[in-house]
Amino acid sequence: MGSSPGRRKSRAVLWGWTMVLWGVLHLPNIAVSAPHHLGKEFVVAFMQNGLQQTLNSDFKLLIRGYSPFTSVTISMKKPGLRMTVQVTTGQTVLVKIPPQAEMVGSKTFENTVVVKANNPISLVAINEKPTSADSTVVYPLHSWGTEYQIVTPNVGTDRYGEFTVAAWDEPTAVKVHLKATVTYQGQSYPRGSVLPIQLKPFQAAQLQSPADMSGTRIVAEKPVAVFTGHTCVARLTQCDHLVEQLRPISSWGNTFIVPPLPFDTQSDIVYVSTSQRTHVESQHGMSRSARDLRAGRSTLYGLQAPNTLYLSANAGIQVIFFGDGGNKDSITYDPFFMTIPDVSSYCLSHNIFALEGYENYVLLIAKTSEVEGIMLNKVPLRNIMWVPIPGTEYSWARQSLGRQFAVHTVEHKTSPFGALSMGIREQKSYGLTAVCDSDPCRTTQCRAKESCTLEKGEAVCVHDYMGTCTGSRFLQYHTFDAMEVDIQGGCTYTVAKYCGADPTLVPFVVEEKKSVGDFKEWLTNIFVHGYNISIRMEEGGRIQVGFSCGVISIGKRNNNNTCVKWDCGE
């Protein structure tokens, strides 16, 4: 029996003379935030890329393992697909997805790709066709939410902005508060209306519109995954597909740094979404400004190389980078979408996915005083130019990663930093938030006889051992270490007791006394928080309970044993 530090609420449970202890006693779990990229359950929506579905689509998943003996199952309902792959620590597996996974049109779909693993993994989805491609980091179920705000590009395009809402394993009701007219399932819904959608398990709804859908709000009764982008947007070059999985409004941040592209001398666009009236201060190079932004809007900020953009808000905001295409040497590259992480989400270690055939780069944002400690693939970054970011304690730098597929690791031992990866090739480009793979267990201090593991996106201290002590009507006990012990009647025995000195744990003692000879009477005393709960069982099965505070509840368990629960309030 234990209690969290500072917690005074107490409970005691005795059921059918059976006591279960984890380690020495039942300790509270200690949880530390873990990377929101790592998880065991994912849904991927391959949204419409271009004007129509084609068989020469190249849809891929990059699956990276962080534990040995990791089994990953990839499935799709219609058309039927099920495959299993194995990954181990530090291994990345490329899985090709059939072109039938593409969602074409504005309707519901049964072809979401469901990914389940027995250990935490990270996942990147690539939606590629011969002249159009983009990629996104896929967030696991524990990072989903119930409220989102859509952003779609509103410049230089004549095709369709789009977004997709996907459910997990339960029916989910969704309300879409539209900021543009859409046609869904053959019916038109005007701007300002609320579109109700009922999703079945693992079903997705995709909405498209030629108008800007930015500011559209999604409210779901259960957590959902939301992907946004464009079928094929053109700005300065040919059109290109855009896709990005969004974070829920509850996960938005307040402080952002947006470095310029390493291969672009033209201006790009940064979309800032607000869910409430928000005061945003910005610094672009040496130019500073402040704006009060209205709720439910996506506001455009310009980014002109070689300047950086620094944003600070008094409420959570969503920041999406739109690289609008351009030219570098002999390469004409197309637009891409990329989520900008907030400074508070920076971490100690990142995985960078460099894609085959692209000029791959990584942009790094680190505290100026800590840049010397950054390592790329275990080697210190030496010949790299760090540029101070005006108005902040940070600097940024760029590093070329070549043209071949590889997964690079960038890390710092003590100082969290940000990382963005991107690449260009003829008529294509991509942008990715780097995958934070910091092991939260590395900085989690568990108690003795506990081990750290990742559960639902958190580092949790779990007990190494569970033991059961069972009493009977006779003078005998089955102990925690599986021994049978005979006792003498008339004596008081200590059944369980906390003998440690940890001040965060609550001392307790469980004592029992049985009558001599045939079973006549059985007395159990539980001492905890300065209280004594006495439970007396007399001949005939009647139970008397004495206590000095709180509430007693008595009931039966499935095995017909009696359960006595005591709750002493705050």
UniProtKB/TrEMBL annotation:
Domain VWFD: from-to ranges: 469-542
Record's signal peptide: 1-33
InterPro entries: IgGFc-bd_N, VWF_type-D
Superkingdom per UniProt: Eukaryota
Classification via Pfam families: IgGFc_binding, VWD
UniProt entry keywords in alphabetical sequence: Signal
Ranges for domain IgGFc-binding protein N-terminal: 134-423
Annotated PANTHER family: IGGFC_BINDING DOMAIN-CONTAINING PROTEIN (PTHR46534), VWFD DOMAIN-CONTAINING PROTEIN (PTHR46534:SF2)
Protein name: Uncharacterized protein
Source organism of this protein record: Callipepla squamata
